[in-house]
TrEMBL record:
Residues 168-180 have a biased composition (Basic and acidic residues). The keyword Transmembrane applies. Residues 139-180 are annotated as: Disordered. This is UPF0716 protein FxsA. Residues 148-158 have a biased composition (Low complexity). Pfam families: FxsA. It comes from Geodermatophilus pulveris. PANTHER family: UPF0716 PROTEIN FXSA. The chain crosses the membrane at residues 7-27, 71-91. Keywords: Membrane, Transmembrane, Transmembrane helix. GO terms for cellular component: membrane. It comes from the Bacteria. NCBIfam families: PRK11463.1-2.
């Protein structure tokens, strides 16, 4: 795994250098440096603005004792996008901009989700269907348990406490045991 990361990082650096050379030959070295500094400044500004929003959302969820959910993923994407925008290079700026802007963040989130799911073992992939039955109220033959002869109202008609019916998780495909 570490070898793949090093190879991808090296390819990324080579691609960034090629793009910088192409852009500088197209618009000139001075304008290229100015554009690189401009995208870095834009990255800092967007990181500050979007990062503040993401942290406020995380604080609000923690205060209300709600799970972080998508807000935690957004905070991670904002941090990665800000880092990519601050580092020199136009490819990283484009990817970082996709991570920082709320309208395009869902694209990156979807791509990352697909990449993570594709690496999961088959046994852990969804969808998992749950077979269950639900009963609002159970009827007891002589009324609810413990209701004596003085039971009245809905209890006298045989309606009692809610009945819990346990279910089981069912998988369509057979689970393989690869330990052998």
């Amino acid at each position: 795994m570490g070898h793949r990361v090093r190879v991808l990082a090296a390819l990324w650096v080579v691609a960034e250098v090629v793009v910088l050379v192409l852009v500088s030959s197209w618009i000139g070295v001075g304008w290229t440096l100015l554009a690189a500094l401009g995208t870095t400044a834009l990255g800092w500004a967007l990181l500050a603005r979007q990062g503040t929003r993401a942290l406020a959302e995380l604080r609000e969820r923690a205060r209300e004792r709600r799970p972080p959910g998508r807000a935690l993923g957004d905070a991670g994407l904002i941090a990665a996008g800000g880092l990519l925008m601050v580092l020199p290079g136009f490819i990283g700026d484009v990817v970082g901009l996709l991570c920082l802007l709320p309208p395009t963040r869902f694209l990156v989130r979807g791509l990352l989700a697909r990449a993570v799911v594709s690496r999961l073992p088959v046994e852990l992939r969804g969808p998992v269907r749950v077979r269950s039955a639900r009963a609002e109220w159970a009827r007891y033959p002589g009324g609810p348990p413990g209701a004596g002869p003085r039971a009245s109202g809905s209890h006298a008609s045989g309606l009692g406490r809610p009945l819990v019916i346990e279910g089981e998780v069912v998988r369509d495909e057979p689970v393989r045991d690869d330990r052998a």
